[in-house]
Amino acid sequence: MNILYCDRFEIRSLSSIHIYELFSNLLKLGHKVVPLSTNGLRNKPGPDANLQLVLRERIKNSLRSLPLFKLLQGEITILWIFSVEIRIFLSTFIAIMKHKRKFDVIYRRHNLFNTEYFLAKLFRIPSVKEVNGIVADEMRIGGKGDRVSVWFMDRIEKWNMPRADKIIVVTAQLEEVLHNEYNVPEDRIVVILNGANTELFKPMDAAEAKDELGLRQSDSYVCFVGSLSKWQGVEYLIEAAPLILESYPNTRFLIIGDGVMKEELIQLTEKVGVSDKVIFTGMMPYQKVPLYINASDICVAPFIRKRNERCGVSPLKFCEYMACEKPVVASRLAGLEMLEQNDAGILVEPENPEALASAIIKLYQDPDLRKQMGGNGRKYVVENRSWESVARKVAEVCEKIVKEHRDKCQKTRE
């Protein structure tokens, strides 16, 4: 099957890990994937791109601090996305012509405009869209747009969301939102949960991981991996830190990632008096993340209710923690119930530092429980959530829609 990935493909960026892993495994399964980027699929995410990503975020943050940008940031964001979309549209058109229309399916991750719909109709190629979240929701929660710009984004999404021939979503809750609020027929939506690279994310000796990272052997570590955005809930981990340190003063908190909330979170560590106990590593190369997870005793995913409660969650870090045999403490939200179902960790009330601290302390008190939960988590991910299994499911969806499209074209000719 020949798949055209209709978008910029910054394979060296950590933000493209999902796409990198998905398409790498599609290639292993014998399918051909053509991205719009000239980087191709052979390049793995690396440190150079992480530096570029951090620099880009710092430039964005500097622009956001300008008074005019603050006033019109929603409108500016829409115009910027539209300008990028024009380039993607033209690049996709050229790619289709260059390959003489020999694509079986167009695949794209949901964006605001999704103009590939027009090209799919023009060239009679079926399209599959992957939806991980609602753009208007993220803009609203992130405070990146005023009421008018967010309303405009919502109208755009409600128009373009049902246009794809098939939609892959990462949570069952997102399936309900698309069906009930965006008028997408249920038979056009398929739920495929996110996964983990079980060959990269695997258990290793904690002492060796600490030694390689230059971490103190006598300290214990609680680890968070992810973007520092409002819906991640890292502030609640920081607020829980003093409670944990009362019982386990040698605990250190590893915050792996970068984002718009970093400075605010650093200020919060100073406010609650734990700035010397929290380590902000910034953006890390993909291949290095397993070291930090393996150096830790417990991993956390303290998501907030807003956005996550509505659409559910299927975070990569969740599976990556478990793949490394680490017990997980996470918010009790739709999409994370398999943590308790597989006895791989503890779910707690969202936005509750006391509950978060209590669960972490409980795991510290029982090394055998940590080991048991870690083993259960690894077993679940290997059997159900590897990227290879995700790629097989995606391929099945694409193959099915291609067959339906060909059958329809054949009937039309007859």
Description:
This protein has 414 residues and is α/β, with parallel strands linked by helices. The chain folds into 2 domains: 2-195 and 387-413, Rossmann fold (3-Layer(aba) Sandwich); 206-384, Glycogen Phosphorylase B (Rossmann fold, 3-Layer(aba) Sandwich), CATH 3.40.50.2000. The protein has 17 helices and 12 strands. The protein has helices at residues 17-28, 47-64, 67-98, 116-123, 135-141, 147-160, 172-181, 206-213, 234-247, 262-271, 289-295, 308-311, 316-323, 338-341, 353-365, 367-384, 387-413, and strands at 2-5, 32-35, 105-109, 127-131, 166-169, 189-191, 220-225, 251-256, 278-282, 298-301, 328-331, 345-348. Helix 9 (234-247) links the parallel strand 7 and strand 8 (251-256). The radius of gyration is 22 Å and the shape is globular. Mean pLDDT is 87; it is low at 11-15, 38-43 and 45-54.
CATH C-level category of the largest domain: Alpha Beta
Tally of DSSP helical segments = 17
Instruction: Estimate nothing, just give the exact number of structural domains.
Output: 2
Q: Largest beta sheet, briefly?
A: 6 strands, parallel
Low-pLDDT stretches = 11-15, 38-43, 45-54
- The percent range for helix content is 40-55%
* Range of strand content: 5-15%
DSSP summary, beta strand count: 12
Distance between the termini: 25 Å
Task: Summarize the helix and strand pattern as letters.
Answer: EHEHHEHEHHEHEHEHEHEHEHHEHEHHH
**What would you report as the Rg, rounded to the nearest angstrom?**
22 Å
Strand order of the largest sheet: 2-1-3-4-5-6
Structural class: alpha/beta
What would you say the CATH architecture of the largest domain is? 3-Layer(aba) Sandwich
**Residue-averaged pLDDT:** 87
- The CATH topology label of the largest domain is Rossmann fold
Report the principal-axis shape: globular
CATH level-4 homologous superfamily of the largest domain: Glycogen Phosphorylase B
